[in-house]
Amino acid sequence: ETGVTQTPRHLVMGMTNKKSLKCEQHLGHNAMYWYKQSAKKPLELMFVYSLEERVENNSVPSRFSPECPNSSHLFLHLHTLQPEDSALYLCASSQVVSGSSEQFFGPGTRLTVL
Amino acid sequence: GQNIDQPTEMTATEGAIVQINCTYQTSGFNGLFWYQQHAGEAPTFLSYNVLDGLEEKGRFSSFLSRSKGYSYLLLKELQMKDSASYLCAVRASGGSYIPTFGRGTSLIVHP
Questions:
Q1: Per residue in B49-95, pLDDT tens?
Q2: Distance separating alpha carbons of residues B82 and B4, to the nearest angstrom
Q3: In angstroms, what separates the C-alpha of B59 from chain A's closest C-alpha?
Q4: How many CB pairs under 8 A join A and B?
Q5: pLDDT by residue (tens digit) across A83-114?
């Protein structure tokens, strides 16, 4: 049990659809992250919310928009995606303090864009 | 920028020892992580090094040399369940808490 849950686990959508990915952490952490994981590529950081501050990777297209209503919940809103956006989307959380502050990952959402 | 390099794939025999290397070039250094990721599952934390030397945790050990920009993960008494991808992640200094991940090393353990 990682303490980080994601829904849905699998999602197939057309390029004109709008959908949202949901992440919830039950660990009392103060930072949450969205990562994109594609085959043969490093984990790509998309967005971070920490202590109510948002950090984003400037290379992420605007068709992805995050929302963090509180420290336990994180959403990724998707609209007019492209087939190359098909990937595993991982949510993670951590406690931002000095020292280790390792990340705890959710099981991911496997997204397929047709 | 940051550059993290790991071998793409390694194979080893059950019961053996394997060393997975990670080299990095970062603007400053504030810690190195190793994660394990089984196919179709979430990455899970294995180890954290911020000072030079060896950290041992059961069958797994992680080593760091900051002057060489080098780390390795050592897996002893390999088991079939150790077949997974091993991710090296480095955190730069300057107060950043966000690590940058390497591509991962896919380890295949065979009988």
A1: 999 999 999 999 999 999 999 999 999 999 999 999 999 999 987 66
A2: 22
A3: 20
A4: 47
A5: 999 999 999 999 987 667 899 999 999 999 99
